[in-house]
Amino acid sequence: MDQEVVKQKIAEWLAPLLQEKNLFLVDVRISMGRKIEVFADSDTGITIEECAIISRLVESHLDGSGLVPDNYILESSSPGMGNALKVPRQYKKRIGRTFEIDKNDGTHIEATLLKADDDQITLQEILPEVKKKDKKKGVKEEEPKVFVVKYTDIKKAVLQFKF
Questions:
Q1: Dihedrals phi, psi of 106, to nearest 5 degrees
Q2: Which residues have a Cβ under 8 Å from the Cβ of 112 and sit 6 or more positions away?
Q3: 61 in the Ramachandran plot: left (φ > 0), alpha (ψ -120 to 50) or beta?
Q4: Ordered domains of the chain (ranges, CATH)
Q5: Could you tell me the CA-to-CA distances from 46 to 8, 57, 116, 124, 131 in Å, in that order?
Q6: Residue 48 — φ and ψ, nearest 5°?
Q7: Less CB within 10 Å around the terminal CB: N or C of the chain?
Q8: DSSP 84-107
Q9: Main-chain phi, psi angles of 8, to 5 degrees
Q10: 156 has which bridge partners?
């Protein structure tokens, strides 16, 4: 089984449905040679019913296609809170949120997402809080830096959750 061909075919099969339902494909993962995971989302979230529709459509094309073993396992879901972001549209719906980003050059960033377009994101670094004692001594707070990162420079970007 050529995994890239299967991923491409799944994306092609889903394109009309995703467009009709205002959804977008985030990722297709194939593991153990037979487990296929399809991750989709929308700007307002994805329902269980929409995931079921995606599964039925993909299954109808895969069954008997010869592209995958007969005993394949198919799962469709949202990408989940802890998964790394993959496509620009995921960033666009999370403006104002805090991220941990690992860049391809090894740099690690903790920052707030200010803006996202189809090529890059604009972030504002998060500075450690100045201690109250230092404020009384007149220590000036540093201004946080604002910087732009191209999607191609991002190795992994994960939302931070504080409970």
A1: 95, -5
A2: 96, 97, 98, 99, 123, 124, 126
A3: alpha
A4: 3-77 (3.30.300.70), 88-159 (2.30.30)
A5: 22, 16, 21, 29, 42
A6: -60, -40
A7: C
A8: PP-SHHHHHTTTT-EEEEEETTS-
A9: -65, -45
A10: 102
